[in-house]
Design a protein that fits this description.
The chain is built from 3 helices and 3 strands, in the order H-E-E-E-H-H. It is α+β, with helices and mostly antiparallel strands. The protein has one domain. 15% of the residues are buried.
Amino acid sequence: QRDRAPFLTGSLRDSIDYTRGHYAPDNPNVRGIGGGLEDDDQSIITIYAGDADAFYAAFIEYGTEKMDAHPFFWPAAKEVLDEWAVDMERLLDGAASEFNTEQ
């Protein structure tokens, strides 16, 4: 995601980060995606963009009345999530195969 962020000062790129568990940003312009088991905070990872220096992350991603959108966060997130889904499917298929051969 950092590679896709527009770069002028580097603040937007540097604001992209992740945390374990649910993330409650101090800034309402921060956007994040999360995944994991809802009742297990340890399995949730939230990726977010924007902070006090890059408060404009949502303006870049979604555009404004006077500026076109330049999505960088969600296209990269979708790509990563698609790759993750393929990796998880392979892992689960491998685990199922091992389980079946042990039975």
